[in-house]
Fold these 4 entries.
Entry 1:
Amino acid sequence: MNQLQQFQVVPKATIKLKDIDSGFKDHHESHKEATGEIELLQSRLRELQELLYADGRSSLLICLQGMDTGGKDGTINHILAAMNPQGCRVEGFRQPSAHELSHDFLWRIHQAAPARGEVAIFNRSHYEDVLIVRVHNLVPQAVWSRRYDQINAFENSLVEHDTHILKFYLHISKEEQLKRFKERLDDPTKQWKISEADYKERLYWDDYIAAYEEALSRCSMEYAPWFVIPADHKWFRNLAVARIVVEYLEGLNMQRPEPRVDLEHIRREYHAAKES
């Protein structure tokens, strides 16, 4: 089974996250064993991103969602380490400003969509408006319940304008989250990430799981699939995401454009400069 199939949420399938092993690590037993494959994937990802940029006909949007400590930042660092910064960027979506709230909920998202030739990675995304908004009753159910169809229509519009969309839910267990909270407490380099909200939001774990399950079930489409990535092992999370992005990009009909200049003329210019 290829990676696009292994972790993809089948359109219209009903997802139950408790049935998916967050500790899955395929045939690899350790990070050390997977290092060689990870390095090869990063090298290939670098080539494919350069080709996407050169081809210039389409763009790639990567959406990352997950519970706190799920590894969104780590996944971003892993992907960006393999890419030319000239052709990619990260957008983080926090509490909307007053100006953003004066528009529809997708307005600020559309502003951040990638241009042709570009890769954009969303650290959290438009799905927050059917996640935290739902869990904390920030708007009436009659409002957020309509947003699934609005999100699907929005993503379809992006796809029709040559944006490819890959969406990753980084799936960790409740026990693994608590372990990572402890790591933050014990590691001075990570203590800045600690927030009172971490433990308060943990009290809503089951509500968030229910919200994610509905979003995954209703918004995984052939044109904009969701993938549930086992993320208890950080190295396997990075490996799985890289496999999927590489496999997807390899399936696109990307071509390097023909030179825009007269190469024979440029060769004569080069030789003349060399001899002068």
Entry 2:
Amino acid sequence: MNDFADGHIVRLRQIAARIEPYDWAFARENGDAIASHWAKVSDGKPAMFNGRILLQHRAAIEDGVFRAAYFETDYAAFMTWRDHGLPGPRIRNGFAMGALRAADGAFLCGRMAKHTANAGMVYFAAGTPDRSDVREDGTVDLAGSVVRELWEETGLTQAEIVVGEGWDAVFTDGRIAFMRPVTIPLPADEARALMLSRIAVMDEQELDDIVILRSAADCDRHRMAPFMKPYLAHIYGQG
């Protein structure tokens, strides 16, 4: 698997990913530790769900195409592995994000609600891939994940957005954020109001606010995952 420093960004034409069997020794050998850690991180957060997710165990970049293999595991195993320093062979959480931008150039991010695992964090709508992202032929539909996560978290439909081509892969320790450009043909304030109105009537609300970012300096006012600021600085630096 390509080894890049934290914050390194690679432009991609395409992602070619598929699911395949893999024996993850960490999950197999640490059942008690995983159960204990999950009980701790989910305490007081009954909405947290230990579902099945997909992680990468091998990947390479060839001529602008990111080729990866994913395997299925429990979210609790992933959280324990992540919070205990990513032990064992190189595994990555490779997930897609819709880098949502308004007609006036501002970016629109969600702030995670208090009941979620990453409460208070600000980033683009996204989710670790799961079985719903796997097609019948075993390929992982990360492009489809972008549209689905935007709809699930903000209420925006595919008809209301324009999804761009290509990806920017942002590498951080244990994670790859695959950023895809997405635009909404509304000024940022109007887009934010629309998304908040949709979120307000959702049965399950992952977000408690929509944050508008008009410059790289705006990022310093928010708690952000490590892949967000390098990407936004990269985009704003392009002018």
Entry 3:
Amino acid sequence: MVDLMRDGALAIITLNRPEALNALSFAIIRDISAAIDEAAGWDIRALVFTGAGEKAFCAGADIKELMGRPLMEERAGAELGQRTFAKLDTFKVPSIAAINGYAFGGGLELAMACTFRVASPKAKMGLPEIKLGLIPGYGGTQRLPRLVGEARALEMVMTGRTVGAEEALAMGLVNRLAEGDVLEAAKTFAGEFTGHGLPALTFARDAVRRALGTPISEGLRIEADLSTLAFRTADAVEGLTAFVEKRKPQFQDR
């Protein structure tokens, strides 16, 4: 369900579950982790993520897997996603998300963990967890404000609204819009920096990230705590159940 291939100086990881809009099951997250580790052993200049099919980069978590879990499993699930995506923070070369369609929830969190994002003009993005009585748990509350600022991040997280590609570009959520094939656009973008020396590229990334203030590792611990607590609420049970039953949730603020 996760394919890894080499294309010249690039490694390409494809989420290959188009029948489910490339949704993130825990098995797929583990496969992503393994693919990142394997690519780390290759002589490459950049790592590119994309989604199979024409509709979605990744539509988010596999909702049915999130229901009815014990407390510690909920915490472990958040930490698995965070730990996997955080590998991109220290990966030896820059990474690019080629967003070819929907990027919601965990899918957008994966894209935000990449160094850069290139999107189709038809792409749609959002963190809709609040609509399920939850909050993002794979790094969304920490990476989004670092990309778009606190006010815009809070608006997206607290309303759960979807943003289109043009708005995402304007707010800094994506770096480029593709004029044609998104994967080819991502490859072209990669060519703009892959010719530079890896030490300098690494130093540049480190210098910028060290200037961001609160270490993301601390922010991720906070997010994991609060995400786990959100799962324990009655509203979360109602939100997840309503999603599976394809109805509007009736939250009770408890």
Entry 4:
Amino acid sequence: MLPDVYTRTLADNRRGLLAWSIGTATVGLMYAAFYPQVAEGGMADTVQNYPEAMREALRMNDMSSAAGYLGSTVFGLLLPLLVTAFGVTFGARGIAGDEESGYLDLLLAHPVSRTRLALQRFACLVTGAAAIAALVFLAMLAVRSTADLDSIGIAEFAAQCVHLALLGTTFGALAIGLSAALGKRAQVLGIAVGIGVLTYIAGNLAGVIGADWLKYLSPFHYYIGGEPLRHGMQWADAAILLAASVAFVAAGFLRFNRRDLRS
């Protein structure tokens, strides 16, 4: 009998998922631990000498507070780029990788629909994004007291990590939707990475260039624009990321069901 696609995919990718989770959490922990040196070493004052446009783009206007520091470096730059990379690479491989290797034909020869196959692959991606965010959350709690991050509540850390998981899911949904629609991993990677770069720039530079409306086209704005580290869960922003994920997946899978896989 055909093994459960979800379980089989997690088992086949367990090393990669573990590496992404541990690696991302370690990066977050290391940079979060630098906060006392930044706060006491005068870096916050030095940053104030940077051009205002640069400070605004990199969210560096408040490097002296724990939320400002983490919102600029750890959760504003490093971790979102890492989870975006995870979502794009995992999603691109989800359908297109199997199609290019010929494994997809073997799977679909069993009594499993294309939609069920694609949905279970997407569920694995969501599980991976959630696992990464969960380990990041535990890493932040582990270093919270020793790194003087107590001004950020546990609920706020949890909210930011939920937003992190949703960001990875959104770009993963984009990639797996393209993967299902196009069937060419190189094309999917190129398009998804291009969209990721453009939306990151739009989310961070929209105000600088006087086009504030551009940030509303960027998943990164809904990920961190409401500052979950200060204000907790931003339910409207989270709902928009979730809705975008559903739309990307639905559009891609609709095309997947109609596409001739032999061409």
